[in-house]
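#onboarding

Welcome to the new folks! Below is a worked example of what a typical request in this channel looks like: someone posts a single protein sequence, and someone else replies with the predicted structure as tokens. Don't worry about understanding the tokens yet, we'll cover that in week two.

Example request:
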Amino acid sequence: QVQLVESGGGLVQAGGSLRLSCAASGSLISINTIGWYRQAPQKQRELVATISRAGSTNYADSVKGRFTISRDNAKNTVYLQMNSLKPEDTAVYYCNAKTWSGATNYWGQGTQVTVSS
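Example response:
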């Protein structure tokens, strides 16, 4: 009952910036946390950043100081501002929503981010 649509991916040179968007719709009252995950070639999917309904944020150590997660409640949209991009940031980025209990996860289809050296 929750749909997530990512956008904003693309090709960028090292040191550049991108802003990803995750538009959420459906029964959003059930959602407590929205996060960004990524999966690089030949690597496991990893958590990048999360933001809760209360506004608390968490970041992976690899992106601290470079990435910022934020939200626009009026648009039901969560953003990931990515600065100082590195080739190792290249991955498919997925939006994830968790229910209050944590029992249910919703996923978007992903958006490709490619950082050239």
